[in-house]
Amino acid sequence: MSDNQIIMGIETSCDETAVSIVQNGREILSNVVASQIESHKRFGGVVPEIASRHHVEAITLVIEEALKQADKSFEDIDGIAVTEGPGLVGALLIGVNAAKAVAFAHDIPLLGVHHIAGHIYANQLVEELEFPLLALVVSGGHTELVYMEEHASFKVIGETRDDAAGEAYDKVARTLNLPYPGGPHIDRLAHEGTATIDLPRAWLEEDSYDFSFSGLKSAVINTLHNAEQRGETIDPKNLAASFQESVIDVLVTKTVKAAKEYKVEQVLLAGGVAANKGLRAALEHAFSDMPEVKLIIPPLSLCTDNAAMIAAVGSVLYEKGKRSSYALNANPGLDIER
């Protein structure tokens, strides 16, 4: 890594307007996040048009605040890293165009970053990555197992075939009339209840590392509806505990199996659902019996969308000499393997 290499990261893939300044790929000088949760809460989910408007209003102020907190100017910045996808196309466009404007105005290299790569590299802000490694990515839109042999090399060995884990959490939360975002509320309830309800686990084919949570989500909804028709009451705490146990069982079991098969040095937890206390505890317990594999779990502040993780990827791309042109565009279907 170059001495005192400074990268600005910009992240606007969903409902967080975030800008960060990161030095040498690991040292966070500033990490500013303008959250929109309160605006979307009453709709029970993110409204793309509202998200885009908020990004337009906030992006310049957040960039200025990130520079101020880091005590840096544009002249100090070596590269501008920005999330180009995946995400909401309107939201992505705000960040991409802001990054292009800054890069052009100040003649700074532009670095397009994959959002999920960012979540994986949030772990580099905690500890140096050692290869080969395996990343369990669990977020609202993604559930994947990603194998890496070297920096910026991603091979998806397992992914969700329907609902992502975070999506299933939010849908179950809505069924239980819990506020948005539902994940933290399900996690809290689960710790207060007991897993007394038998819910399915989708293991799929024996050699598959893919995931499926749609059937589990439907089973929870059917369990509630059937109880209502019989005039019975189901304790939401026990239902949350049962649902969470089913999700975590599949995630952890497949991660452990893949870590053994691919003989990895590290296992990284990444994505918004990485903040889930139940999942964190279950992974720590599972890998306590595997001292040959180092488990890395980022702090809660780096699990949800932020720009420090985007800058961390940008730092690697900058070192590898990879640059994006001013033709860079929002790409909501961006493939991490390409």
Quick recap of the structure?
A five-stranded mixed beta sheet has the order 3-2-1-4-5, with helices on both faces. Strands 8-7-6-9-10 form a five-stranded mixed beta sheet, sandwiched between helices.
Side by side, the strands of the main sheet go: 3-2-1-4-5
Share of helical residues: 40-55%
CATH architecture of the largest domain: 2-Layer Sandwich
Low-pLDDT regions: none
Bin the strand percentage: 15-25%
What kind of sheet is the major sheet? 5 strands, mixed
Q: By helix and strand content, what is the structural category?
A: alpha/beta
What is the CA-based Rg, rounded?
20 Å
Coarse morphology: globular
CATH superfamily of the largest domain: ATPase, nucleotide binding domain
Task: Specify the number of helices.
Answer: 10
Average residue-wise pLDDT? 96
Count of discrete structural domains: 2
CATH classification, class level of the largest domain = Alpha Beta
CATH topology of the largest domain: Nucleotidyltransferase, domain 5
Could you spell the SSE succession in H and E letters? EEEHHEHEHEEEHHHHEHEH
